[in-house]
Amino acid sequence: MDYNLLDESWIPVLWIDGSSTRVGIIEALTQAGRIRQIALASPLDLFAVHRFILTLLYWKAALAGGVEQVRKSLLKDGEVPSAVLEGITKEKHCFDLFDEKLPFLQDPSVNGAKDDERKSAGSLFAELATGTNIAHFHHGDDENTRLCLPCVALGMLRVVPWTQSGGAGLTPSIHNAPPIMAIATGDNLGITLGLNLVLLDVEAGEPKWSGHFKPTNPTKAIPYLEALTWNPRRIYLSSPRIGVCWYCGSSDAPTVGKIVYKKNEETIGNQQKKKRIPFTWRDPAAFYPENEFASANSTQEDQATENKDLARLIPVESGPLKSAVAVKNESHHGWRLVVPTTNPKNNKTFDHRQLELPNLSPETIGALIRANKRPPGRSEGLDGWNLPNPRHPLGIRLFVQAAIKLLTDADWAALSTAAYRDMHDSPAAFDVFAGLYWGLRDKKIGRLPSRNVAWLILKLMAAVPAQARVLHPGARFSPMEDPNALPKRQPKERGRTSLYPVSFPRGERLEAALRRALDSNVRKRKPEPVDWTGLCNGLDQLLD
Ligand SMILES: [Zn+2]
């Protein structure tokens, strides 16, 4: 079996003419000006494939006069210089996933691993269930998870930029927790590659495409070709057999099952006085403070929900953090920001997202954060729903008044049988409702509550004893205001810094919550007078 990433068609692309196919690296490079973009759904895959192609260009750029020259050629007409293309093609033997001696990004010396030392092929993808990381949308087990060869290629390429921490000493990649990375995007793949190919202020060194990865000198500045092929694992793929891919769903395709996936002691990292310090390396796509090597990462999940993690890119005191790609393309229009979210406690990524932005200015990024920003000390807006405006329109007041004044005990009895029912399911109660509601509508007294709210409020009023069904001038009690009846936030859990908003319930869930709150009020030794008008008004604002 051989599977060479240069020749096989494994990268899904969208062509300028709107068609879509898969291509290999050579075709991607020769046709870069005709390919609109790489068409991968996962931002991690998308970044990893761009990064791999860029690494090849960095590697052979010298053959066409250097990185700046190749960048110019790509930006001009989306063309990869032929000398670069020839240089890459000559090294084709480095890119076969199943080469006996030099399998791509793998270490043949771990091939002898026993079966119980092998891990799920899903280890290559943070979002696939593996080992003890099982709380995922993808449910699978280590024995059965298989990946088709295009997906294996994606997974192998993720190893360099995106490897996170795992249990049992599995250390992350060169930048520790996966950083926020930027991709500048152009009108075609060639221009996109040109934009992201930026001259790096470090020695080039040599790429390490196969074997046990060992940094030349981890305490010194890391040469860029070494950093761009940094391999924190010792991996060996098993021979493929026909099966179903757990990542893309292809069936009847050659697939890889359990793989050797071991830690690489050589990439564990530098320590200074027992504290781990970052390698001397700045990824061109990641963001760093001036003269520092610790990249900006997203952290907690709840910050990610509101883009609050992006604030790390524009700290108040020191000015915005810089990425080499962003600096080089300062005036460029069209960016993607790949934001993996990592738990700071264990450097494990549990989520990632992609933001498409016109530019990376502090104003643009700030606007994303500000859009969700609240004035300090006020909780409105943070919750799933806001308390309604307390002003009661005349129609709503008159509706509640009329119900209390006009409906008889028999009417209330009919309404009380309609609990949890729709109008059309309870004819007797519907007659009561219609008589009251249509009668008021004819009088043109202003906006009445909506039909649904009027129906619901009558059912609720019918559920309490007659003495609670009055209009009390100082009535304060409303389930709307009672956080136990209708929560706005998820209950506080241990270790969670802020709470998740809860959406406003509907249908039977809402009716049940309101009934429960009214019932527990009635059961109090001194029940509080119910603010029926406020409840009707609030429901009217929140439901319709
Ligand atoms: Zn697949």
Q: How big a fraction of the residues is strand?
A: 5-15%
The average pLDDT value, as a whole number, equals 90
Helix content: 25-40%
Shape summary: elongated
* Strand numbers in spatial order across the main sheet: 2-1-3
The radius of gyration is 31 Å
Main beta sheet strand tally, sense and closure: 3 strands, antiparallel
Q: Which consecutive residue ranges, at least 5 long each, have pLDDT under 50? A: none
Output the structural class: alpha+beta
Distance between the termini: 62 Å
Find the count of extended strands (DSSP E, 2+ residues): 14
Notes on the protein architecture:
- By secondary structure, the protein is α+β, with helices and mostly antiparallel strands.
- It folds into 2 domains: 93-370, no CATH class; 394-543.
- Helix content is 30%, strand content 11%.
- The chain contains 16 helices and 14 strands.
- The strands form 5 sheets. The chain has a 3-stranded antiparallel β-sheet. It has a 3-stranded antiparallel β-sheet with strand order 4-10-7, with no helix packed on it. Strands 5-9-8 form a 3-stranded antiparallel β-sheet.
- β11 and β12 (275-277) form a beta hairpin.
- α2 crosses α4 (82-90) and α12 (409-416) crosses α13.
- It is elongated, with a radius of gyration of 31 Å.
- The protein starts with 10 loop residues before the first strand and ends with a helix.
- 40% of the residues are buried.
- The mean pLDDT is 90.
- The structure holds zinc ion (ZN).
- The site of zinc ion has 8 residues, from β5 and α5.
